[in-house]
Amino acid sequence: MRRAASASPSHRRQKRRGGSALAVVEIKTNRHYAGVYSSRESRQAYHRLLAEVSGNEGEVPSAPPDITVVVVADWRHNWVRSYYVKNGVVWLPPTSASDFSDQRKWRSSAQE
Questions:
Q1: How many domains does the chain have?
Q2: What's the Cα-to-Cα distance from 111 to each of 72, 80, 83, 101, 108, rounded to whole Å?
Q3: What range does the domain containing 107 cover?
Q4: Distance between CA 110 and CA 72 in Å, rounded?
Q5: What percentage of the chain reaches a pLDDT higher than 70?
Q6: Is 2 a member of any domain?
Q7: Which of 5, 33, 99, 101 could form a disulfide with 94 if both were Cys (CB 3.0 to 4.6 A apart)?
Q8: 41 domain-assigned
Q9: Is 57 left (phi over 0), alpha (psi -120 to 50) or beta?
Q10: Whole-model pTM?
Q11: What does the pLDDT look like over 51-97, one tens digit per residue?
Q12: Is 101 a domain residue?
């Protein structure tokens, strides 16, 4: 016979080979690891997660992304400067759509 679901997720133990068991809290089929099982830190993480879920209508709040558009643009700029190198000179890609057909219009970074 199947056990009735409890109102709050349980603080469960997940065995690990060759190490301490981990504390797991499963909310809507998503596992959240709370640290080493039966430690004070894992209990605090469990209670913090329950408080977050109860304050957010049963959903785990999503964390804000660590990456921004500025970071992606900077990464792409650095990649372009390292990828478009010909004979030691950086060749920047065309800036307009009509320039894509004619590679002779590609400009060197030395021309800037």
A1: 2
A2: 26, 16, 18, 20, 5
A3: 69-111
A4: 25
A5: 72
A6: no
A7: 99
A8: yes
A9: left
A10: 0.47
A11: 888 877 777 767 767 788 888 889 988 888 888 777 877 776 666 65
A12: yes
